[in-house]
Specification:
mainly beta; elongated; 14 strands
């Protein structure tokens, strides 16, 4: 059962394919579930979303409806949802992506530098880039994190044209040259982002 300060994730319906999760912390549990998020989530009353959480060492997905919020205060969003139906087991949480939109991490994609990192999982990531790339293309990716450089090959899985350029969803491609170096970097970033979010959310709860 969800309890105060537990981690809870929201996923929009259109983000299911990319497996993007927005991490938050539970503020209260009653007839509705209140959680606070570091992002300005684009939610409306009666909108249905998916809520993910861990219970007894298992990861679950639960359909939910927004009943109040989001209320924006000090760079956080407070959201109230009602859980609908029964939860169902979700796949390993390592497959899901943590949003990094509040961070300032950039990547190099082929020759283009300063591509903003939007979200990251243990095996994939999304960036904003100016260069147009075809779906299925193999690109070189490089990121600096915590004083170390991580690089490797990634495959473009999805492309969306946005105001800033192109939003690319990419998946790490195992190659012998870098021996999974990029994937290790993504795992470190993913864990660090989650730790920072939990610390900040706990301080504001």
């Amino acid at each position: 059962m969800l309890t105060k300060d537990a981690a809870v994730f929201i996923q929009f319906h259109h983000e299911q394919e990319q497996r993007i999760l927005h991490r938050g912390g539970v503020v209260s549990v009653g007839t509705t579930l209140e959680a606070v998020y570091e992002e300005d989530l684009d939610l409306t009353i009666d909108q249905e979303v998916f809520v993910y959480y861990e219970e007894r060492n298992k990861f679950f997905r639960h359909l939910a409806k927004v009943v109040e919020g989001p209320k924006i205060e000090e760079a956080t969003s407070s959201v109230h949802v009602t859980l609908l139906g029964e939860p169902i087991p979700a796949e390993s949480r390592e497959c899901y992506r943590a949003s990094t939109v509040m961070g300032e991490i950039t990547m190099q994609i082929d020759e283009e530098t300063n591509c903003k990192l939007l979200d990251v999982s243990a095996t994939g990531f999304a960036v904003i880039a100016q260069t147009e790339l075809p779906t299925g293309a193999a690109v070189s990716a490089k990121v600096e994190f915590d004083g170390s450089f991580f690089e490797g090959e990634a495959i473009v899985q999805s492309t969306t044209e946005v105001r800033e350029g192109y939003r690319y969803g990419l998946h790490c491609h195992a190659d012998n040259k870098t021996d999974g170096n990029l994937q290790r970097g993504l795992q470190l970033i993913n864990m660090d982002v989650q730790r920072q979010q939990l610390r900040r959310l706990a301080g504001k709860a």
